[in-house]
Structure formats: structure tokens, C-alpha cells
């Protein structure tokens, strides 16, 4: 590894309670881009406080210059399994040039190795696109574990605020009745089935039916999922769509799963439910913004989220601050142990 700039330094933390105020302030003041790190850190902090015996293989690493935190890397565990390497930065996207970020990526990789994180644990990295590309190349160079040729996920982060939320009433489809509501325990089997189908489309992070049932149970118990209940005339009601929001901080909620039963597609169910969930999160829960990631190649979802009020998804060519490309790159699945997120 090349010599590292002397003004960069890293800190390694293994427990959320040991994160200093400056790290918490950095995460909270960049809550949108920290949506993959801050909520899990908050959950870990609460778990450590409630249960002295709480143990997870969690590591947070900061990269700073003088008194400024530039990058935070997290490699943590959630209730569905081990998460990828997540990296957020306080730098604006236009400053993420190779020359600007390479020194920081190198010191983060050195710290990750110094922390004795098993190499097989680093199964993928998810971060703003230039950071992911450079981390993957440098990790392959240092460890010899090659990156997978095709990215796992290429998307842009977008956000919706109350002033931009499309407040139209739920679209009415006279051909069926519906109800938009928080999920209840009786919905778990249907949510489990839709979660299983969602994971089937999320290679390589498929779930077994047992795993999907466990995930659905936790979503309902934690009040992190809403359902679009629908019924055709003379037919029993069904769960047509689900929207989950599992990464939540004081000011930002992240929608992490949107899925519609193929039988109910092209009826506006996803748009109807996403709009209702955003209204709930922004008004009832008093969030300042709702974020989500939308794949570059998912034109249908892009259109739905644009209609709801998410920023930077129109066909216009101008850029919107905070709507940036993110990328997940995986590493040789013969040499790593996949988690789930």
C-alpha cells in the first residue's frame, strides 16, 4: 500500500457507546447520506444500553483531517444478517475525485485490516459511486479477493420533503376497493410471501421462506411496514403491496423495500402506498425527509417516485444537490460469506 498523507488519521470503534459526540454530530448533520450507518448505530447504542451482554461484530472507522471527519465506514450486523461495508462522506459529490479520495480510502482499508475484520466478512461495499469504485479496486489489490464483474446494485439516492410531497388524494380505481394501513400480525404470512418474491429479484441476496417469515415478523413487530390491502368485487381481500422503512433516525426515514404482488401491478398500488407512507413519516413522525434508492434501470419505479415528490427524478438534465449515484460492488462469492440487507 502506498505511503499515506501524514495529516490523515483514523479511529476505530467497536461499540456504539464509544462513538464520541463528534461522530454522532457528523452522522446526524448528514443524516440523508448517513442513512445506511446512523440508524444501525442508534439501534446498537440502545441495545448496548439495555443489555450489557449485547455483542455484535460491529466496527465503525472514521477518517479525519485535522479536526474534520471526512469519511465514516461501518461494517455492522442487522437483524437479517451482516451488512455490507457502508461508507459515507461529508464531502460534496463533485469533490469525490480520485486524487481527493484515494488517500482516505487507503487509510480506511488499512484501518479495516488493523481492526482484524475477517476478509471474508467484506462481501460487498455500498457507497457513493466513486468511493465504491476506488474501494473495490484497492481492496482487490491489497487482499487479492477480486471484485465481481457486475455491480450488485447501481442506483441514485433521492429524497422527499413535506413541501415537495405530492399531496393529491389517493388515486381511485373503481374496479377494486382498498385500504392503506400499518401492518398487523395477521399480515405476516402475506408480507413474508411478498418479501420472499422481492428477495428473489435481488440477486445475490435471496431469502429462504423461513428467513422471509422471520423478516416479516420483525417488520411488523417493529412497526416498520405498511400494506396496501385490496379486494376485487366478490373476492377476499389481499395484500397487494408493501412498503418497509427500516432505517430511521430522528430527522430522516429511509424506505427500504417496495414490492407489489405481480397480480396487482399496473393499478397504482405502489404509488398510492408510497405517497401515504411518506405522508405518515413526514407529518405523523415529523421526519424532515424520506430517502430511498432507485435503480438506474428501473424506469417504472423512477416514474412512481417522481410522481410522489422525490427529487431529481424528472427527465430534465439539471442535477439536484443530494441526488447522487451510489453503487454496490461485491467480491468473489467463493471467498466471502454473504450477508443480507
CATH class of the largest domain: Alpha Beta
What's the overall average pLDDT, rounded?
94
Query: Which second-level CATH architecture of the largest domain applies?
Result: 3-Layer(aba) Sandwich
**Assembly state here?**
single chain
CATH topology of the largest domain: Aminopeptidase
How are the strands of the biggest sheet laid out side by side? Answer: 1-2-3-4-5-14-6-13-11-10
Q: Biggest β-sheet: count, sense, barrel?
A: 10 strands, mixed
Which structural category fits the helices and strands?
alpha+beta
User: What's the gyration radius in Å?
Assistant: 20 Å
Low-confidence stretches: none
Protein name: N-acetyltransferase domain-containing protein
Organism: Hypsizygus marmoreus
Domain N-acetyltransferase: 178-330
InterPro entries: Acyl_CoA_acyltransferase, GNAT_dom
Please provide a written account of the structure:
- With 341 residues, the chain is of the alpha+beta class.
- Helices cover 31% and strands 26% of the residues.
- The protein contains eight helices and 14 strands.
- Strands 1-2-3-4-5-14-6-13-11-10 form a ten-stranded mixed beta sheet, with helices on both faces. A four-stranded antiparallel beta sheet has the order 7-8-9-12, with helices on both faces.
- A hairpin with a 6-residue loop joins strand 8 and strand 9.
- The longest helix has 17 residues, at 98-114.
- It is globular.
Amino acid at each position: 500500500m502506498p505511503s499515506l498523507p501524514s495529516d490523515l488519521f483514523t479511529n476505530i470503534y467497536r461499540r456504539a457507546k464509544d462513538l464520541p459526540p463528534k461522530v454522532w454530530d457528523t452522522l446526524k448533520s448528514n443524516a440523508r447520506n448517513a442513512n445506511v450507518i446512523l440508524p444501525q448505530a442508534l439501534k446498537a447504542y440502545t441495545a448496548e444500553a439495555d443489555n450489557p451482554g449485547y455483542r455484535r461484530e460491529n466496527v465503525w472507522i472514521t477518517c479525519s483531517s485535522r479536526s474534520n471527519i471526512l469519511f465514516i465506514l461501518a461494517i455492522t450486523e442487522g437483524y437479517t444478517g451482516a451488512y455490507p461495508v457502508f461508507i459515507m462522506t461529508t464531502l460534496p459529490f463533485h469533490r469525490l475525485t480520485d486524487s481527493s479520495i484515494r488517500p482516505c480510502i487507503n487509510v480506511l482499508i488499512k484501518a479495516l485490516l488493523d481492526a482484524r475484520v475477517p476478509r471474508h466478512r467484506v462481501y460487498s461495499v455500498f457507497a457513493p459511486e466513486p468511493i465504491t469504485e476506488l474501494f473495490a479496486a484497492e481492496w482487490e489489490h491489497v487482499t487479492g479477493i477480486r471484485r465481481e464483474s457486475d455491480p450488485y446494485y447501481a442506483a441514485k439516492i433521492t429524497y422527499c420533503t413535506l413541501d415537495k410531497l405530492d399531496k393529491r388524494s389517493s388515486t381511485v380505481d373503481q374496479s377494486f376497493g382498498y385500504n392503506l394501513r400499518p401492518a398487523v400480525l395477521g399480515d405476516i404470512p402475506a408480507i413474508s410471501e411478498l418479501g420472499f418474491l422481492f428477495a428473489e429479484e435481488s440477486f445475490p441476496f435471496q431469502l429462504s421462506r423461513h428467513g422471509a417469515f422471520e423478516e416479516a415478523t420483525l417488520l411488523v413487530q417493529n412497526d416498520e411496514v405498511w400494506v396496501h390491502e385490496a379486494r376485487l368485487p366478490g373476492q377476499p381481500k389481499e395484500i397487494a403491496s408493501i412498503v418497509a422503512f427500516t432505517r430511521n433516525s430522528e430527522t430522516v426515514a429511509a424506505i427500504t423495500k417496495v414490492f407489489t404482488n405481480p397480480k396487482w401491478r399496473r393499478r397504482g398500488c405502489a404509488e398510492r402506498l408510497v405517497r401515504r407512507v411518506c405522508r405518515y413519516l413526514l407529518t405523523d413522525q415529523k421526519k424532515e425527509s424520506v430517502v430511498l434508492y432507485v435503480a438506474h434501470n428501473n424506469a417504472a419505479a423512477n416514474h412512481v417516485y417522481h410522481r410522489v415528490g422525490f427529487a431529481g427524478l424528472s427527465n430534465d438534465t439539471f442535477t439536484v444537490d443530494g441526488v447522487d449515484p451510489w453503487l454496490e460492488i461485491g467480491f468473489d462469492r467463493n471467498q466471502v460469506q454473504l450477508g443480507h440487507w
